[in-house]
Amino acid sequence: MNAISNDFFLQDNVVQIARLLIGMNLHTLIDGKLCVAKITETEAYRGYNDRACHANNGRRTTRTAVFYESGGHAYVYLCYGIHRLFNIITNVAGKADAVLIRSVEPIEGMKVMQERRNYFKVDKQLSTGPGRLTQAMGIGLEHNKHLLKEGHIWVSEGSAIPTEDVLVSTRIGVNYAGEDALLPWRFCYKKSEFFTK
DNA sequence: TAGGTGATCTTG
DNA sequence: AAGATCACCTAT
Length: 197
Prior knowledge:
- By secondary structure, this protein is of the alpha+beta class.
- It is 14% helix and 29% strand.
- It has 4 helices and 8 strands; from the N terminus they run H-E-E-E-E-E-H-H-H-E-E-E.
- Strands 1, 2, 3, 4, 5, 6, 7 and 8 form an 8-stranded antiparallel β-sheet that branches.
- The longest helix has 8 residues, at 14-21.
């Protein structure tokens, strides 16, 4: 499938982008291996007035530098020393918004995903959770700061999901963010098994 | 339910 | 320079 234009990620509404990504497809062509999966769980992080965001209030460090690139860049970082988490930067350069991709439902390349995960079933444990999906899709720290593009890591249109099939809730694992932890910025595709319960 | 794991950030 | 923290996952 064709990559959507990165213009999509330039919109000034990261919450809406996170919502619209539900039902779109994530593709990777890494080490010559193609994987396609439906995006089933996302979270929005905002550069300003969101204590849960690594780049909150214009925070600039080595790690957060990529947040200040334009929408469509990948932010991949190591979490808990083990897991790689994949985000897509949104908004125009300097705004520091991002969407965390938390779960996907495999469509193509299941065998490759299974081998990468060393998990030989196709059920929710294959690609539910931000650490699992990056492992399954082959996304690593070397992809940090890359611009999404067809033939590498990219997003295609997929199928639009109606409002009644989208679960909206608070974000996971951000209790340190105080009242910002209560923001309803997590989106899941209800009809899928592939999201964090 | 607890513990692994290491880069990142803060404190002294 | 050292210690705390952390957008998670696996196996007891």
